[in-house]
Amino acid sequence: DFRHPEDSYIWMTWNNHPNKKPYLQIDNEELINYGEPVYEYEKSLETKRYFPDDNLTKYLIDYLKEKGIDKFNRTAGWKDKLLKIYESYKRENKLDEKFETEKEYIKRIKYELKKSKEIIEKKLKIGVKFLCWPGGGVTQQAIEIASESGYISSTIARDIKNNERKKLKNTYGENYSRINRRGCELYWNGIAGYDSNIKYKNGFQFILSLYNFQEKKIIAQTSKMIFAGITGLYKFAYFLKR
Q1: Does residue 115 sit in the same domain as residue 172?
Q2: 127-149 pLDDT, tens per residue?
Q3: What DSSP assignment string belongs to the chain?
């Protein structure tokens, strides 16, 4: 694929503008490199990084700017046309592209896990012992590096099958090296962008959600009814606004 209006590749904007990432909950069209190739991708901690040819990327971006992004993307078969231009450039030019080596991958993972821990501890002035894997991307190597970096536990991720995840209830007696991730979202209207409507749990609601997750008998049933009522009210309020 290639970057185009209303695509879902906001993470590419994050990668190109890391200092602006905290302010990019939705994509900023002024920062999008329309025409930039979208290669096969995975979570950064679970795969080796690919470095594409910068000249090829620039060639495609400049081509779309010259043709006019809106006009070009309304043209039937625009993606196939851009793909032919991409393939033609590859045939006629020697590309400067590469993947990380295994050694480079390990070095990057060590840096990211250790440095991020140092930054958080410095800002919060407390020790950080638990790690939440970004996007659920992880490898056994990353888990071992996290342990070496001082983490005593991390969230379950895509390395653990769904049926095994359901068995983890974050209760006393379980192996605490991996814990089940619990979110604080109470309600979301299902829309991304400016029209998104998200409500988060307060402290009391979050505690109830944990009891519900851990299946604490009567408390779990009570919390289910409370959350069903609250979520229903938010849905009704959103329906009235529409």
Answers
A1: yes
A2: 999 999 988 889 999 999 999 99
A3: -B--TT-S-HHHHHHH-GGGGGG-SS--GGG--TT-B------TTSS--EE--HHHHHHHHHHHHHH-HHHHHTSTTHHHHHHHHHHHHHHHS----EE--HHHHHHHHHHHHHHHHHHHHHHHTS---EE--GGG---HHHHHHHHHTT-SEEE--TTS-HHHHTT----TTS-TTEE-----EEEE-S--STT--EEE--HHHHHHHHHHHTT-HHHHHHHHHHHHHHHHHHHHHHHHH-
